[in-house]
Amino acid sequence: MHASLTPIEGGIGAVPGVKTAAVHAGIREGASAEKLDLALILFDQPQVTVAAITTNEIKAAPLLVSDRRLAAGRTAIRALVANSGCANACTGERGIADAEATTRCAARALAIPAETVIVASTGVIGLPLPMTRIEAGVDAAAKALAPGGAAATRAARAIMTTDLVPKLSAYRFQHDGRSYTVGGIAKGSGMIAPSMATMLAFIATDFPLDARAAQDALALATADSFNMISVDGDMSTNDAVYLFAPHAEGGIASAGLREALERVTHDLAIAMVRDGEGATKLLTATVTESASREQARRIARAIVDSNLVRTALHGGDPNWGRVIAAAGSVGAGMRDGAWSLEINGLPWVAIGGQELLTEAEAHAAISKQSVEITLRLGLGSEQATAWGCDLSPGYIEINAHYRT
Amino acid sequence: MHASLTPIEGGIGAVPGVKTAAVHAGIREGASAEKLDLALILFDQPQVTVAAITTNEIKAAPLLVSDRRLAAGRTAIRALVANSGCANACTGERGIADAEATTRCAARALAIPAETVIVASTGVIGLPLPMTRIEAGVDAAAKALAPGGAAATRAARAIMTTDLVPKLSAYRFQHDGRSYTVGGIAKGSGMIAPSMATMLAFIATDFPLDARAAQDALALATADSFNMISVDGDMSTNDAVYLFAPHAEGGIASAGLREALERVTHDLAIAMVRDGEGATKLLTATVTESASREQARRIARAIVDSNLVRTALHGGDPNWGRVIAAAGSVGAGMRDGAWSLEINGLPWVAIGGQELLTEAEAHAAISKQSVEITLRLGLGSEQATAWGCDLSPGYIEINAHYRT
Q1: Residues of A with CB below 8 A from B397's CB?
Q2: Which residues in chain B are contacts of A349 at CB distance < 8 A?
Q3: Which residues are within 8 A (CB) of A1 and not within 5 positions of it... i.e. 6 or more apart?
Q4: How much is the CA Rg of chain A, to the nearest whole Å?
Q5: Which of A396, B180, B226, B245 is the most core-located residue (most Cβ within 10 A)?
């Protein structure tokens, strides 16, 4: 880590100029009255705002409405309303109208233009937002806004669905003798796939940027973090990562900003995988000696995405053939006779397929809580890492009755 | 079904000129002595033989050796040796030598050239074939060859891994006043994915064909059967479908042959999905009103391949949003606002997202043993169907300790 980079508490609440609040709005019928389900984020100053959103062809209404807001005034964003319990996806014209009404409601409560408010939702697909509750919730949240980590932790809780823990990360870095912060909150859990997932992440910094620099920095950071994790290979209709920064025409990303942003996105991505639905173990798959970065990425993602690798991991079964079968399945250019495998830094399978660990040694290695598999392709010098989790009966239990 | 098409018993054993045998060779350490694990198929006459094999970049040794045999003499094949318990994949030069030795051993036992023997394996990846046992098994099988369904059922059992039931299908059809047969055996269970799966299928007919006609007929039949099923989205190193027929220069496929072959591949594919690892329910996903056949295929496969759709199916949770999210995730051109859904023939979700069934009605529909979901895209007039199964704790139980 860069010498001047310091991890700090508070997530997005650690960023100067950011206030957050969370309330129980009662969005999901039957949910506990303690379940926070609506979060509000307010920026003291207009923010340049950039996004990385789902590539699913079915995009939820909040994504579409936020996209229009950014297209119309990317440098003027002041607030974000996020809710759990209802995805407002597959809700047609009504969904669009409800998302727009949410921005107007926040605008009234905060005395800012509706065009400066964006929205995000997560939860069950196909149900309409309960607008009376949303509006009451937004009003209550507007009165509870506060800076700092305690409020941000509540906001992180409010966007949780099947997540078990709130996810926050923040780093402080130096530039030209001044101290800046990057901080974020996120939710993950299920429907997490390479190329975006059922995930929301809201990240802010007080380092001034122009829109292009912000977009580039976010793209770079998500490519190696949110886009390299998998819980179940399913891709959501609602995924969105938003990065907010004070606007500075021509402001470029410093090395410190880029590194801090990479750390925050990495931390939040790993937190999502660790807290994947039913997850009991963390899998880190690194592909090295690759002909290209993209090849390494595709193969690393295929490994963490394989149900068979994930069940073997769950059972502590050192079934390396499944790793190789997964790696070969995506048409990325694996060459048999050239690859070798390591597990937790130990040579595992040599070029040609010879096992180098005893069954007991391999079983001990794959039975650890955190398992690192390195696949050397023998094709070049590029590399990439993906993160995933085991597939456990808990995943099925959670998802067999999610809606009912 | 065509009037002249008759389902019959016996699988590949129902085809005139085909003999099969199966023995317990003891290929997998610790397996029960009753577990048949080596199958032999002998054809009275040389067969034109065509294949559809895995697209995995890591191909097992038996695939490579069989491929060479077919390239050298596609119209002269006399026998196939298949084993379960060991995939002979990722076994390097030794694996190739072992697969070739297996063909020589069968050649000696059957008094035919080694060049006319092909091989197939399924089981654990990365372990070498126990050649002494393979050779003894081939010798014993050669003495037990018999026509008919009883022997073929034993052969179907010998290629089973985690399959619970043997899979056979045969149909009789008429052409020019003569009766012909198409019959096959197969194994499936896990590592089953669109674009081939951990599956083996051996299909024979006594209808004479040339190589081109046989290849075309097999490609057509697999496109709508084996390539449209999914158990877990994992793609094996060993998948192979072989079609054997008497060779006739210029012999083209009759309508009856094509239809019988489609029925056999369909039956075997559905049998694989019904017997998928841990499967308790059958899911049939049909995509209609598609702009192209390929679009319909991709979206139908995405639905049956989704872990979230499969867990909802397992739990009887009518979570249609997951069906739509899966359909939109593969970049096949879904258009929101144009689609609608049916379940078991009942209108389920209207264009625009309105639910047409009560929660109780939808729950009852998705709780059936066999669930049919129809997604109308509203984009054209093409259609395709894919088959899958639910994701249950049984799948995890089976796969968490497959190797150890």
Answers
A1: 393
A2: 90, 126
A3: A259, A263
A4: 22
A5: B245
Contacts of A236 in chain B (CB under 8 A): 325
Q: Radius of gyration (Cα) for chain B, nearest Å?
A: 22
Cβ–Cβ of A325/B235 closer than 8 Å? yes
By C-alpha distance, the chain A residue nearest B126 is A321
What's the predicted TM-score (pTM) here?
0.82
B198 among known catalytic residues: yes
Q: Could you tell me where the DSSP H helices lie in B229-335? A: 255-274, 293-305, 307-315, 320-328
Q: Report the candidate in A380, A74, A93, A48 with the shortest Cα–Cα distance to residue A204.
A: A48
- Report CB contact under 8 Å: B404, A336: no
Nearest by CB: A328 against B237, B401, B404: B237
- Residue among B286, B233, B232, B243 at smallest CA distance from B265: B243
Q: Give the residue from B55, B64, B67, B90 with the most A CB atoms within 10 Å of its CB, the best one to mutate.
A: B90
C-alpha triplet A165, A50, A264: angle, nearest 5°: 35
DSSP letters along A204-237, please? EESS-B-HHHHHHHHHHHHHTTGGGEESSS---S
Tell me how far apart the alpha carbons of residues B109 and B124 are, in angstroms, rounded to a whole number: 27
Taking an 8 Å cut-off on Cβ atoms, the answer to whether A331 and B57 are in contact is: yes
Query: CA-nearest residue of chain A to B349?
Result: A126
Tallying the residues shown for chain B, one arrives at 404
DSSP string, A88-140: --S-HHHHHHHHHHHHHHHHHHHTS-GGGEEEEEBS-TTPPP-HHHHHHHHHH
Q: How far is B266 from chain A (nearest CA, A)?
A: 24
Q: Is the ipTM reported for this complex over the cut 0.90?
A: no
pLDDT in tens, B192-237: 544 334 689 999 999 999 999 999 999 999 988 888 887 655 667 8
A57 with B353: Cβ contact below 8 A: no
